[in-house]
Design goal:
InterPro entries: Acyl-CoA_DS (IPR015876), FA_desaturase_dom (IPR005804), Transposase_DDE (IPR002560). The C terminus is likely disordered. Helix 11 links the parallel strand 2 and strand 3. Helix 2 packs across helix 3. This protein is mostly helical. It folds into 2 domains: 245 residues, no CATH class; 138 residues, no CATH class.
Length: 401
């Protein structure tokens, strides 16, 4: 009876729960560091021994195969929010992805074309072929016996918690909520959102919009108030030579304001376009606030502007259909907002027109800055000067780089 109650460890219920939570967190760390940042995106180099520890732990706690997970995730990025995306709420609906995300994953894992096209570069050694991929369920059963041996009957509940943690949080929350609800730092060409600025519960995967903006970055946090616990682990592991980040989010560099926006300015603008457009969004939000301050409280115009203010700085494709007519009406009533929106779209064309030469695009950028500074709109004038101060990192003095 004592063995059934407490197992070999003799742990109390709270001690057993603490161990279960640590084990579950190790699984989250294995998914985000090994499967996601290392295997799928090659953003992180891991020591071979540590990579194998993660692989073995995932075999024990999830039964997931590295090739399957990697291929499905790469396909998600390649087909994001389009037909063929394995788990997009835009395609399947939020309810299906949230509650049946694990089923969508398992269905896509049966697609040989997905594995062949997107699963390259994943482990194909003896132990992968003979154990991990051949007998994925054996690890899960073995982990059940380990829990039962350590904690008795309570071990069954802890094992069940570990089994549902990844399907719920990774498949349901990240793949579902992370493309449906939350805040966006950047206008990435998809519906990705940051679920929370503090990436702890899912190892940093909460910062999903940041990841979709910079998918090859090993670091998911970009703002001072954001925290990516996965990045904290990477920094700690790098001290011991066990991990090395290959890439992190780029940071815009600034120098003196140039009299003319030239080809170097264009190069820096395109390289940092997501950060630049995020800064433009801030200027638009400030302009909306100024417009609201100039309106009489309670008037219909103020109510209409307040109702759509969250969409005025977004890409047109990201505005929900039910708000599009209201957005157009507000722009018609507020010439400054209409001009800022029109010039925002013109700015986006600088990295969308592949047919124009570098020299032509640089001339377009110079003309854009001239019109912005002649607009009489303080936000546009300030932003134009910020653009003319952009520098490619290589062009900066070492003290500024």
């Amino acid at each position: 009876m004592h063995f059934l109650a407490q197992g070999l460890s003799g742990a109390t219920w709270w001690q057993a729960l603490l161990v279960g939570l640590v084990f579950t967190h190790l699984t989250i760390v294995s998914v985000t560091l090994y499967l996601h940042r290392h295997s799928a995106h090659r953003a992180l180099d891991l020591h071979p021994a540590l990579a194998h520890v993660f692989r073995a732990w995932l075999w024990l706690t999830t039964g997931m195969k590295t090739k399957d997970w990697t291929a499905i995730h790469r396909k998600h990025h390649a087909k994001c929010e389009q037909a063929g995306d394995p788990h997009s709420p835009v395609v399947f609906g939020i309810k299906k992805v949230f509650w049946q995300g694990a089923e969508l994953y398992r269905a896509e894992a049966q697609n040989p074309d997905t594995l062949a096209r997107y699963g390259h570069g994943t482990p194909d050694d003896w132990i992968e072929r003979r154990l991990y991929s051949r007998w994925p369920q054996v690890g899960i059963v073995l982990m059940l016996f380990i829990y039962l041996a350590l904690f008795g009957a309570l071990g069954l509940a802890l094992w069940a918690m570990q089994m549902v943690w990844i399907p719920f949080w990774a498949a349901g929350v990240v793949n579902g909520i992370g493309h449906y609800w939350g805040y966006r730092n950047f206008e990435s060409p998809d519906a990705s959102t940051n679920v929370s600025p503090w990436g702890i519960v899912i190892g940093g995967e909460e910062l999903h919009n940041n990841h979709h903006t910079y998918p090859t970055s090993a670091k998911f946090s970009v703002k001072p108030y954001e925290f990516d616990i996965g990045w904290a682990y990477i920094r700690a592991l790098s001290v011991f030579g066990l991990a090395r980040a290959r890439k992190t989010p780029p940071k815009p560099a600034f120098g003196a304001v140039r009299p003319v926006a030239d080809a170097d300015t264009l190069e820096a603008l395109i390289a940092h376009r997501y950060e630049v457009m995020a800064a433009y969004a801030q200027q638009m939000r400030a302009t909306v606030a100024a417009e609201l301050a100039g309106l009489q409280a309670g008037c219909a115009d103020a109510d209409a502007l307040r109702a759509v203010r969250r969409w005025l700085h977004r890409d047109d494709a990201q505005v929900p259909p039910q708000h599009q007519a209201q957005v157009q009406q507000v722009r018609a009533q507020h010439p400054r907002l209409a001009q800022m929106h029109a010039m925002r779209e013109e700015l986006r064309q600088l990295w969308s027109h592949s047919a124009r030469s570098r020299e032509q695009l640089a001339q377009d950028l110079h003309a854009w800055c001239q019109r912005a500074e002649a607009s009489g709109i303080a936000a546009l004038q300030e932003f134009s000067q910020r653009v003319r101060a952009l520098r490619p990192v290589a062009a900066l003095p070492s003290a500024l780089a």
